[in-house]
Amino acid sequence: MKLAGLIVGALLLTGCAGQNGAPWLALSGSPGTCPKPDSSQDLALSMADEMLADGRPHASLAHLEEMPDNLIQVRVRKAKVLRLIGSSDAEPLYRGLLGTCMAAEAEHGLGQLAADRGDKVQARQHLMRAARLAPTDEKVRNDLGVIYLELGDLEKARFEFLTAIELKDDRLAAVNLVTLLLYQDKWQQAADLVSRLGLSAAQFSEAQARAEQLKPGGTQPPRSSS
Hints:
disordered N terminus; mainly alpha; Serine Threonine Protein Phosphatase 5, Tetratricopeptide repeat; single chain
């Protein structure tokens, strides 16, 4: 049975369908369709993506720097890598992508940067714009849900997590939904979800720790960037 179906069934069975909605946080010229890179450029971009996924951001950036900087696919990847390594050069790169075919990715990245520096209101504004531009991007919806949860808007957080889960069986959003339930002290509902979704004991412990950190007197949980 699909994860999305399991989630919905669990929520209905536990009476959570009417409840109020971080750990977290996700990349998706002119507005419209981006021009496609040629086959050799596409291969180089894929190689840079693989290096980043393997935990080698500096190597990924080095490969991107070999490519033409006028390629918008190169610029958006550079911005993401620079954000992940903590470079201040990420923000101007993202801002340079606003109003282009990568505007959703730019808003998403700016939202993540704002969240990382603790500006949750600014993060919410950027992520809401990203969600309007790319409503089916599950990573954007998850990250917006995290910000809503951190701001105490539990109903909206829950809506975003469910949307992310139903869009792409998103495990990060599933853990965040468990976090939300634990934050509300709905332990039975959280345990039921963990069982139905097949989440691991480690994932449950992570959700529990984050929920405790979000409560008054807790320390802010670390963010996991996408």
